[in-house]
Amino acid sequence: MPQMAPINWLILFMFFFSMFYLIMNLLYFNFMKNMKNKISFKNNVKNYNKLI
């Protein structure tokens, strides 16, 4: 098994860290959008109930 240079490990680490960062950002923003939509929907229902 050939040994890898430290710079290769650094590149692999940066690549996986950047992929992890992008995936976590996508999941976080999608979750926040879904939560905001649910909250706004609940608020709209409450407002309609008050109007009725």
UniProtKB/TrEMBL annotation:
One of the GO biological process terms: proton motive force-driven ATP synthesis
What GO MF annotations does this protein's record show? Answer: proton transmembrane transporter activity
Q: Name one GO cellular component term.
A: mitochondrial membrane
Q: Please classify the protein's predominant subcellular localization into one broad category.
A: mitochondrion
Q: Which UniProt keywords apply?
A: CF(0), Hydrogen ion transport, Ion transport, Membrane, Mitochondrion, Transmembrane, Transmembrane helix, Transport
**Membrane topology per the record?**
Single-pass membrane protein
Q: Where in the cell is it found?
A: Mitochondrion membrane
InterPro entries according to UniProt: ATP8_metazoa
The answer on whether this UniProt entry bears the keyword Transmembrane helix reads: yes
Record field: transmembrane: 6-29
The record's family statement is: Belongs to the ATPase protein 8 family.
What is known about its subunit structure?
A: F-type ATPases have 2 components, CF(1) - the catalytic core - and CF(0) - the membrane proton channel.
Recorded protein name is: ATP synthase complex subunit 8
Q: Which gene encodes it?
A: atp8
